[in-house]
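ok new one. same drill as before - structure tokens go in, u give me an amino acid for every spot. 131 of them this time. try not to just spam alanines like last time pls lmao
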């Protein structure tokens, strides 16, 4: 999983939550940093993209990545989901949206659904942290 968010606290929370759930996680603080990681050979199954980032928006970053990785699954994490849904009438297969603030359990469920099509057992979820 590659987490791209300009907020270091959100990235750290997502990393900690996903690593506890057994995922391997890499981080980037911007779209250019994410592009550099992928260009250097990082292979990911899922991109978690903050929608509102300086320089290049999360949606634009995903659009560019899909040119070379059309199969890349995407979880948009944002406090401004209405803006994206206003701009796009459809959610494409392989992508989902998680509205901030979210719980750790909500993040794990969204990632698991995108990657496996299943929600993990309740015992594996941590309801404690939110962002």
């Amino acid at each position: 999983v590659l987490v791209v968010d300009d907020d270091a606290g959100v990235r750290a929370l997502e990393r900690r939550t996903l690593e506890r759930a057994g995922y391997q996680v890499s981080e980037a603080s911007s779209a250019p940093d994410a592009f550099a990681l992928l260009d250097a050979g990082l292979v990911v199954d899922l991109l978690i993209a903050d929608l509102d980032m300086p320089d290049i928006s999360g949606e634009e970053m995903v659009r560019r990545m899909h040119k070379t990785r059309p199969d890349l699954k995407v979880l948009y994490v944002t406090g401004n989901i209405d803006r994206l849904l206003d701009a796009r009438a459809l959610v494409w297969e392989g992508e989902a949206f998680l509205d901030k603030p979210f719980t750790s359990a909500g993040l794990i469920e969204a990632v698991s659904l995108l990657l496996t099509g299943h929600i993990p057992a309740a015992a594996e979820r941590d309801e404690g942290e939110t962002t």
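Residues 8-20 form the longest helix (13 residues). and btw The radius of gyration is 14 Å.
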